[in-house]
Design a protein that fits this description.
Chain lengths: 110, 114
């Protein structure tokens, strides 16, 4: 499975933007980049995914480097509810499962 | 549909006992996954089903673990002769078939083996 590297933890202030980086230098052409997050005492929840182009949805934006070896999840205005562990995952188009790493624990300060 | 449902939410059992967990996926999601998560770690993949067929099993799924999805709807995960190392959160997820469809996770079953 292709690997991802994320910082163990990050801090943000409430209502400020947050940029969560992910490195995936061994990404293959058929790997999609998925982001999930896990709030305390909850199961993971989907955030966003992309292949090559930047993506936006109501939760976040995903910026993908031109060489696809890294990506950044952008939360435009962090809220206290965004405090969670964020997982960056590569999933091949033909692969069934998601392989999680340790993720980045995001803390949001009021 | 209220999402993926897992029961029980919490289970305390004595070492050596058998336990069974149930997962009810979102209707019409033909893929169902089981994960295990210990404190401070990301979820670890255990196994997944496409309808009633078990397509992949992790090496983590020892002989004491068995999973079924008899009619392609709900699934059960059984652990026989539980050990203290089995204490963890067991998560179930489901999604429709498709290269990029998102997975929906349940809230998990927390198992404590004493």
């Amino acid at each position: 499975d292709a690997k991802t590297t994320q910082p163990n933890s990050m801090e943000s202030n409430e209502e400020e933007p947050v940029h969560l980086p992910c490195n995936h230098s061994t990404i293959s052409g058929t790997d999609y980049i998925h982001w999930y997050r896990q709030l305390p005492s909850q199961g993971p929840e989907y955030v966003i995914h992309g292949l090559t182009s930047n993506v936006n949805n109501r939760m976040a934006s995903l910026a993908i480097a031109e060489d696809r070896k890294s990506s950044t999840l952008i939360l435009h205005r962090a809220t206290l509810r965004d405090a969670a562990v964020y997982y960056c995952i590569l999933r091949d188009v033909g692969q069934g499962n998601l392989i999680f790493g340790k993720g980045t624990k995001l803390s949001v300060k009021p | 549909d209220t999402g993926v449902s897992q029961n029980p939410r919490h289970k305390i059992t004595k070492r050596g006992q058998n336990v069974t967990f149930r997962c009810d996926p979102i209707s019409e999601h033909n893929r169902l996954y089981w994960y295990r998560q210990t404190l401070g770690q990301g979820p670890e993949f255990l196994t997944y089903f496409q309808n009633e067929a078990q397509l992949e099993k992790s090496r983590l799924l020892s002989d004491r673990f068995s999973a079924e999805r008899p009619k392609g709807s709900f699934s059960t995960l059984e652990i026989q002769r539980t050990e203290q190392g089995d204490s963890a959160m067991y998560l179930c997820a489901s999604r429709p078939t498709g290269a990029t469809t998102e997975a929906f996770f349940g809230q998990g079953t927390r198992l404590t083996v004493v």
